[in-house]
Specification:
binds 2-acetamido-2-deoxy-beta-D-glucopyranose; alpha/beta
């Protein structure tokens, strides 16, 4: 259950984390059996050393991970904070003793006034980096939008994976930030393999620390009873969620940000005014395969003959990591389900326009998850429900699970990243990348997704209103 009792403070995430562990174990056991059977059938005899790879523990040392990354891309993985840059400069200069003594005073992160000024400037200028090198955006190019919070380490790996993707030079890569951080900006601005743009969610908790949408000191505490709240006259006393809890700013931000960025990209940016192609949604802790754009464009072209009613394409799957190479060219189609298809999906303006008309459903549904809200929109409002084409061998992976279930373990050990690298290496070696064609498989039977009441966390009228306000186009 995804009731509010088990909330975990997560930045830009979908919702599968909480269920993953059990699936994971079951999945591993199941896959082990499958793999055994496959080996018996000698399906893999066409390439060498395949079988031992899966049994080997992965080498997740930093060196090993680095060794899988071309050296020209190491710059994206090498942390260089402003602080350290300053320090090393000072140490090199040596003689600058006074500077060294005052070192701590030299770098000041910007204050909120300054951050607001910068955010306004970026959002106003709509600057596109590398446009001169890679040419203007074509109407049918893919736009990739990455929702970024604070997890720079994952973001580094995502960037490295993007850098290695086929045809990446044709995309516009938009980073949508809800946290202004100069190290993250430096990282994004060093990207040199495609056009890049940064947009900044302007209603963040960071820039509204003591007021809505951040935490207003006069907001009702989450667990206070409604009658007490009314006596206390706290701000939102009349609007607890459907489980009787009051708003928590950190949980509402992700949904607001998701909605803001979708509106911003489709309806407000100048550069997308005539864009009719796909917009692919990623998050900071995703990782892409080198053929993800190739597969995406192929799926898009094939909607005509494989699935006319499909209006959303999905490149990620949660549980299939380990049998990637048995499914290289297979796709399936089924109704879009938030918990299954919320990573690495893409749609075009036609789909967006229909979603946008349902803003009221999205913005007033009492669920703080953007993906469940989108599913609600699909089921309750859309004339043509969201119908997904899903590639069975995932091209988008989720590497950010560390933060949730493995708190105790050493997350810097990069276990998931090295696993993904390994899966991709096997796929590459066995010729499973860049399939020549796609085939439709019969979708596995899915349980009828009973529409449940929302997960709560979205009862506050101010949230509904802010969300609706973002829907007004201002191009
Ligand atoms: C992991 O890889 C690194 C670098 O390639 C190597 O030095 C190290 O010995 C390896 N560790 C294990 C346990 O294989
Ligand atoms: C920079 O480094 C100093 C000393 O290590 C530390 O006290 C300070 O908080 C750091 N500042 C930032 C903005 O990271
Ligand atoms: C240290 O020296 C380098 C080059 O010699 C110079 O660019 C830099 O500004 C100096 N840094 C400081 C803090 O003096
Ligand atoms: C914030 O920073 C700006 C520029 O760095 C400075 O002019 C301003 O006084 C600062 N404001 C506060 C409240 O510290
Ligand atoms: C994009 O579409 C617009 C409107 O249809 C058209 O005017 C423009 O020339 C197109 N741009 C490109 C690069 O195809
Ligand atoms: C969006 O994709 C659908 C097929 O999935 C297509 O019918 C429609 O024309 C596309 N819209 C635009 C604006 O290209
Ligand atoms: C929404 O927009 C209206 C009109 O511009 C404004 O009065 C109101 O304060 C906004 N609400 C929120 C929550 O931002």
């Amino acid at each position: 259950m995804r009731g509010r009792r088990i909330l975990i403070p997560l930045p830009n995430t979908g919702s599968m984390y909480r269920k993953r562990n059990t699936y994971y174990m079951r999945g591993i056991i199941f896959m082990a059996i499958l793999i055994f059977l496959f080996l018996k059938l000698q399906i893999f005899t066409f390439y060498d050393n395949h079988d031992s790879v899966l049994m080997e523990p992965t080498n997740d040392s930093v060196d090993a991970i680095m060794s899988m990354v071309p050296s020209v891309l190491h710059k994206f993985l090498t942390p260089k904070t402003r602080n350290q840059t300053l320090l090393s400069n000072l140490l090199h200069n040596g003689s600058n003793l006074i500077g060294a003594l005052n070192f701590v005073d030299l770098y000041h992160p910007p204050n909120i006034t300054e951050i607001n000024r910068q955010i306004a400037k970026y959002n106003d200028m709509q600057l596109v980096l590398n446009e001169y090198t890679f040419g203007p955006l074509q109407n049918d190019s893919v736009i990739i939008v990455v929702q970024v919070h604070t997890r720079i380490t994952y973001l580094r790996h995502l960037i490295v994976s993007l850098a290695q993707a086929h045809d990446i030079s044709r995309v516009l890569l938009i980073f949508s930030h809800d946290y202004y951080d100069e190290d993250i900006n430096d990282l994004v601005q060093t990207i040199d393999f495609c056009k890049v743009m940064q947009i900044f969610y302007p209603y963040s908790i960071q820039t509204h620390p003591n007021e809505f949408p951040g935490i207003d000191p006069n907001d009702c505490p989450r667990d206070i009873k409604k009658d007490h709240a009314i006596i206390r006259k706290c701000n939102n006393a009349l609007y607890p969620d459907l489980y009787g809890h009051y708003r928590e700013a950190k949980f509402t931000q992700t949904k607001h940000h998701w909605w803001w960025k979708a509106n911003r990209v489709f309806d407000q940016l100048e550069i997308t005014r005539y864009h009719t192609g796909l917009v692919l949604f990623l998050e900071e802790d995703h990782y892409v395969a080198e053929d993800f754009l190739y597969v995406l464009e192929m799926m898009y072209k094939r909607t005509i003959d494989l699935c006319l009613q499909c209006n959303i394409l999905s490149l990620g799957t949660y549980l299939k990591t380990f049998n990637y190479y048995t499914y290289n060219s297979k796709v399936e189609v089924m109704p879009w389900i938030s918990s299954k298809h919320n990573m690495g999906f893409a749609f075009n303006r036609t789909t967006w326009n229909s979603i946008r008309k349902c803003a009221k459903h999205f913005c007033s549904y009492d669920d703080y998850n953007w993906d469940w809200s989108l599913q609600h929109v699909s089921q309750q409002c859309l004339r043509r429900k969201l119908h997904a084409m899903i590639v069975k061998g995932p091209r988008v992976f989720h590497i950010g699970e560390c933060g949730v279930h493995h708190k105790k373990k050493n997350c810097e050990s990069n276990q998931v990243i090295s696993k993904v690298q390994q899966v991709l290496r096997i796929a590459r070696k066995s010729g499973q990348m860049f399939p020549r064609t796609l085939t439709l498989t019969v979708a596995s039977l899915i349980k009828k997704t009973k529409l449940r009441k929302g997960n709560g966390g979205w009862g506050d009228k101010r949230d509904h209103e802010l969300c609706m306000n973002m829907t007004l186009p201002v191009r």
